[in-house]
Write a structure and sequence with these properties.
heterodimer, A: 263 residues, alpha/beta, 6-stranded mixed β-sheet, 4-stranded antiparallel β-sheet, 37% helix, globular, B: alpha/beta, 11-stranded mixed β-sheet
Chain lengths: 263, 482
């Protein structure tokens, strides 16, 4: 059975007294063990898709259905989704002043454990769990005693997201432009973190502009999102082609713009 | 955003958890205020003539005063002749010799509030001077403190047993002419707490008072006086919860602190008087005058307050920094929810050389709550190299509440350094979503964010108080954002 099944998803956002449709019928099937990359230019609806899957309430789903493990994902609250194993690595993680990063992560882990009917971890067990993961992500320990994301550099924020993902061990991880703003070393570290999570039970959806990340995390499927629709799907070679030819190539391929303009 | 606001309403509309009335018989005097009533109060308390004189001077002065109107709060006129100015639990006539002799109803009241005296005595090492209505009903640990020469008792006992100390310090920080409500308090105060820490003594335990308004229509006029003699140190805790009421009740307390050379006083308050219902009906008017005087060199007074209750909170715990090198601190969290109003802050009066003050104020507004920070930093001519740092942060939850900041600064010495920082932020939907995406409920998310916001103040509280303060905050704001 598919882990995630999106059927004809239409989403609009209410902005300045006007409704704007952002997703115009997206369909996607993700099986356990797979990595899907969703690529597309700015404004194509990539981030909206990630946010809607995670349960952001600022968007209106006007049509379609999303099944997660056979259940109606859209009917679940954001915290229910999280507790059931849906994780979103944010493009712009929120800062929470005064809240210790370790404390936050421990609260998250215990919320998920509680939901599963598992005993909560005490401070000692928790430290053991996350210290190893931190080391793998080459994160400085001082980040863990600082307030959540406050004063973190862009790269530190992204690593913190991956650390949370590693500790929470989701079944479905959605990474929203996790590669943006990372230098090449940080990119490699983050990619290793994601690859470490790869397993037959788990699925990963990567949302990205660039092919660069896919050199390190090799996807099973690549989809091109354009103006709110998936216009092309293929294997990992599609990403390479995109990188070489640009998004205009797709548009041209679809007959939207003349060939000269694409060059 | 609509969802967010609905969530805010859900949480903020939570009922007051500590609303109950215990059936203790009370011994009250007739309604209204007159010289006769004051004489009656003084007689009931078997006070020496100097106290009666002082009360009468205050009363006569009060008659010449007008109720202030500059504050950023609104309330219906108070009828001072409708109030009852004295009430004492009946069973108090025969003072209990130990905790076991305490009126079982009184003890139940404390149990409901989660303050079993016996347990506190044994476990927490806290001496509790419990005030139910206007007379102290239980004082613990007096013996242990007595060995060190520390006096910790009800104000009435202090008047009876230590009249010289009371005479010397009463009104020395807040004179009976000070302000409308403090003057009224001076005339009619029923009881309160008194502490004296002798020279060089570090008080080994936190001194604590739990206040509780109990009889209907009874104004509470507490008076607290703490004197820390040279080189001594004391930490004092004051906590309040009040039962549910429909008529507004005035609480006009006075707290005076005196720190002599090298003495330190830390005064912590968690205030959770009944705030009124969600439409603003009922609730306590908390109009309190709190002031400390760093009279001696190198002395220090630190106020920490967590104000979650009351329909109206109107108070400025202040420091007069008279001694050279003295330090004043003010750490405050004020929460206003539903129709609650708060106009609170501090005054730091720098008189001595090298005096330092720190002000950290955190205001949280939810529902239709209005939260005002009002503070004065005054550097007098002689206060060479005085320093002040002020930080006022406001957090708004939802779009129907308000935050206001009125910082006043008067600097008359060119060598002084005064810094003021202020921020106002709306609790972020993105912060809450982030927390929920990690598995936390909306309520837990709000609690976490708000507690983070208040961290700089909470860490100033004694441990057990900090825990209580966090709990209180989550009760007062439950569901404020969803």
């Amino acid at each position: 059975m598919a882990l995630l099944e999106i059927k004809d998803l239409r989403v609009k956002v209410h902005d300045k007294d006007r409704d704007k449709e952002i997703l115009k019928g997206v369909s996607l099937i993700v099986h356990p063990g797979e990595i899907h990359a969703i690529m597309g230019p700015n404004g194509s609806g990539k981030s909206t898709l990630s946010q809607v899957l995670a349960g952001r309430e600022t968007f209106d789903v006007t049509r379609g259905q999303v099944l997660y493990d056979g259940k109606d994902l859209l009917a679940m609250s954001p915290e229910e989704r999280a507790c059931n194993g849906v994780f979103l690595a944010f493009q712009y993680p929120a800062e929470i002043p005064g809240v210790n990063n370790t404390y936050f992560l421990k609260a998250a882990v215990n919320a998920v454990r509680k939901h599963r009917g598992e005993p909560e971890l005490d401070a000692m067990d928790f430290l053991k769990l996350f210290k190893g993961k931190m080391k793998a992500l080459q994160m400085h320990e001082s980040l863990m005693s600082r307030p959540v994301n406050e004063g973190f550099s862009g790269g530190e924020k992204k690593r913190n997201e991956i650390l949370q993902m590693a500790v929470l061990e989701p079944r479905l991880a959605i990474l929203d432009e996790t590669d943006s703003g990372l230098d090449i070393d940080a990119l490699r570290v983050v990619a290793e973190g994601v690859n470490a999570l790869r397993s037959p039970e788990r699925a990963i959806v990567l949302v990205t502009h660039y092919q660069r990340l896919l050199d390190y995390i090799v996807p099973d499927h690549v989809h091109v999102l354009l103006e709110g629709r998936i216009v092309k799907s293929g294997g990992k070679e599609l990403a390479l082609e995109l990188e070489k030819k640009g998004y205009a190539w797709i548009e041209q391929d679809l007959g939207r713009i003349p060939a000269e303009a694409a060059r | 955003m609509a969802e967010t606001n609905a969530g805010i309403r859900r949480i903020t509309e939570q009922e007051y958890k500590y609303g109950f009335v215990s059936a203790i018989e009370t011994d009250t005097i007739p309604r209204g205020l007159s010289e006769e009533v004051i004489r009656l109060i003084s007689a009931k308390k078997k006070e020496p003539p100097f106290m009666l004189e002082w009360r009468l001077k205050a009363y006569r002065h009060w008659l010449t005063m007008k109720e202030p109107a500059w504050q950023n709060i609104h309330y219906a006129p108070i009828d001072y002749q409708e109030m009852i100015y004295y009430a004492a639990p009946k069973s108090q006539k025969d003072r209990p010799k130990s905790l076991d002799e305490i009126d079982p109803e009184v003890r139940k009241t404390f149990d409901k509030l989660g303050i079993p005296l016996k347990e506190q005595e044994v476990l927490a090492g806290v001496a509790v001077d419990a005030v139910i209505d206007s007379v102290s009903v239980a004082t613990t640990f007096k013996e242990n403190l007595g060995k060190l020469g520390v006096i910790f008792c009800s104000f009435s006992e202090a008047v009876e047993n230590h009249p010289d100390l009371v005479k010397k310090y009463l009104g020395s920080v807040v004179p009976y002419t000070d302000n409308f409500f403090a003057t009224l308090n001076s005339a009619v105060f029923s009881d309160g707490s008194f502490a004296y820490i002798p020279k060089g003594v570090r008080c080994p335990m936190e001194l604590s008072t739990y206040f509780r308004i109990n009889a209907a229509d009874t104004g509470q006029f507490e008076r607290t006086l703490i004197v820390a003699d040279e080189g001594s140190t004391v930490s004092y805790l004051e906590g309040c919860t009040a039962p549910k009421r429909d008529t507004n009740q005035l609480h006009a307390a006075v707290v005076e602190l005196v720190a002599l050379d090298n003495a330190t006083i830390k005064y912590s308050t968690v205030q959770n008087w009944y705030p009124g219902d969600k439409d603003g009906k009922g609730g306590i008017y908390n109009f309190v005058t709190k002031r400390g005087k760093c009279a001696g060199r190198n002395s220090k007074i630190s106020w920490t307050q967590v104000e979650t209750g009351s329909a109206i909170t109107w108070k400025y715990p202040s420091c007069i920094l008279q001694g050279d090198d003295s330090t004043g601190e003010f750490y405050s969290v004020a929460v206003t929810n539903n129709r609650q109003q708060a106009d609170t802050g501090t005054k730091m009066i720098h008189i001595g050389k090298n005096t330092k003050s720190t002000i950290i104020s955190k205001g949280i507004s939810a529902g239709h709550g209005q939260n005002t920070y009002r503070g004065l930093v005054k550097i007098l001519k002689g206060a060479t190299r005085a320093r002040n740092y002020s930080q006022c942060d406001s957090l708004l939850m939802g779009d129907t509440c308000g935050a206001h900041t009125f910082p006043y600064m008067e600097v008359k010495n060119a060598t002084a350094q005064v810094e003021h920082e202020a921020t106002t932020a709306k609790i972020g939907e993105d912060q809450i979503f982030y927390c929920r995406q990690r598995g936390l409920s909306a309520e837990d998310a709000v609690n976490m964010i708000v507690n983070g916001f208040c961290k700089e103040v909470f860490r100033e509280l004694p441990m057990e108080f900090a825990v209580e303060a966090q709990k209180l905050l989550s009760v007062s704001l439950e569901g404020s954002v969803g």
